[in-house]
Amino acid sequence: MSEFYNADDGTDDELIAAAADEPAEDAAADKSAIDTAVDESADDAVPDTGDVSDPDVEPSSHSIPGLADPQPEATPPDPLITLEAPPPGTRSPESAPDEHDAAPTATPPPTAVHDDEPTTAQRSVGGGRPQSARRALTGAALVVFAAVTIVTPMMASPIFVTDVTQLAALTLTFAGLWLLTHRLGLLSVGHGALTGCGAVAALHSVNDFGLPPSLMPIVGFVAGFAVGALLAIPALRLPKAYLALLTLSAAVVFPIVLRQIDGPLPVTLDAEFLPPAWTGVDARDEHIWEFWYVVIWVVVVMWLLHGLLSGPVGRAIIATRDDPTAAAAFGVSVYRLRLTGVALSSGLAGMAGGLLVVPVNFTDQAQYPEELSIKLFALTIAFASTAIGGSGLLRTVPASAVLVLLPVWLVDREGWLTQGGWSGLVKSEYFFYAVLLLVAAYVRSYRTRGLRAGV
Amino acid sequence: MPESAAVTLFLQRVFDSFANGSAYAALAVAISMVFRSTGVLNLAQGKLAMLSAYIAVAFAAGADPTVAFSGWLAPFATPWPIWAAVVGAVVVSAALGALLEVTVIRPMRGDPVPTIGATLGLYLLVAVFVSKHFGGRTRFLGSPFPQEHTDRFDIAGARLWFDTLGVTVTLLAVLGLLALIQRSTKIGMAFRAITSNRDSATLVGIRVERIVMGGWAIAAGLGAVAGGLIAGQINVRPPMMDRLLIFGLAAATLGGLRSPGLALVGGYLFAFAETMMAGYVGFIDSQVTLVWALAVLIVVLAVRPSGLVRRRSPRIGLKT
Prior knowledge:
Chain A is mainly alpha-helical.
């Protein structure tokens, strides 16, 4: 097992070893069983098992075992649908303890992996409620979310809506980082720069090449994907610190490059991003349309990502994280999969950049300093290694909220930003992130040590 | 351009690259020293060197109302000579490096995610400390070496300033001294033993933790030397070490992050290439050379992943 995730106390190793020792009478079933094992350990893997209550982390991964799932369509996309809906309306309060109680049984003892037929009973243990109820809940969540999404921008102030639109866009950057950190087990300190790459590429595609602004997210994705792949190709053949090294270098270099390309002043988007007539939104209320546009993109992409990661590719990714050698033995091309994963992760960041241009309308070198990348990294780590969060895709929302809303909150505090000396230090944004990083690091290493000592 | 003038210009550019090269080399050596002994990539090394430069400024400037060190630096109210300020900064930084190793890095037990997270936490902490305490303002330290316009050697028409020469010689002397210590003292031998096999070193009774702490102190001290000396050429300001960090990382990569010797050579090579590109290639100005450093970094990693070191079994693999 990679030293990254030693905290998983070796369960996966045992499972894989147990499966690998099995006579080859039913190789296919074995493979599926390993996939199950890896899959089911996935959620616990990152937050270091045990005490992190992880109620809503992808219930589907507990409930749908193996490759040969008869009903892949039944994967309820509720983590995505509850993306920004207020928690009380979307999830019954009982459901969380339910799933939490079920969590220990969800990771089966090594013998359980030899069960040929995962029964519906097992499924309902993992899911905590029957399929029809889940579907009803999912539907209800969808309706609530849609209602909130449609109504909120009409009620709130334009400034707030613009903030929330940025928040939604940045969720994709966090999703990329989450994939990279928690699923691939790699480290990137350059996702701020990759987001910036996407934003700049998207803006210039409209300004200089006359592409329609609605294509900006796609241009951003392509730009992020390409740059991420360029950094990953050499770095992934080396120890993991190298990817951090290269991405940090990219993060430092990016504002300098941007200054060379665009000059010291911000560059404004030439095109207007006006609401289409069928929406019925007044042209002056473009923030409403921008919000809807961004949220639709984010929801669709998150849903696709969730689907991808719940399937065989997702399980292969987890396998490469937990034990690359074993994964390679089962025919997974570790380097290629990691490369694709990093590129995809960077592409998501780039797409977030493309979406950010929608509400912000300009790019500027000062928007993407290397500290942004470090802040992104800090929040990604913190929301998974402390009690605040688990490893689910939904954790990207609070992380993004902190990133976007903390500066807003700080600006509102009289004199906090301009204050010098010790008190100014404590009240500054970077101090918060520095403490967040250090605390997350201590907590994580403390847990790792506890688990290693057999506690 | 007549031939002699071209030679002079070339020589001048070579000389100009010496000072930067020394700083890059010092940082590269510091990074590879820490990495080879502990496996920790200290991403905060550049920021710590920047902090050291500010500490040197605080010593040299004496009591300065614009510096928020009001009460507790009062004993140091008298301005120190610049060389003393640099030495003071080296001592303080070394102590700080040791302290950070004990309090921040050691508890992580080499687990990569928390360790990298912790070094990034230090990165931000130092950045915010400097911006709040020194107001993030550009400060002038000056050089410990004579800087008058007559203080130079003229070699084939090119000017080699005493300042540049002093910086280069000092850094080379410091690094030479370190190499000598590593080669011929017991502590140096212990350090090398840890580098080659930490577990075995523990078994034969070497006090690994102390030596590693010393390694961090030396690395931070080296950063302070780089920061303090280069401050005579460029002013002390918050982003001053970002360039140095990138070039330092790139130079350290040439040595596979494990060879201080190659890192040293790499530092000078990068500075040389930087000056040459900025000087001879029209569209590259000094800012963009940083991009070329990154490009070289990528190419080197792609072509020679273990750096320019010749080794039988490069550390390439899946489980790393």
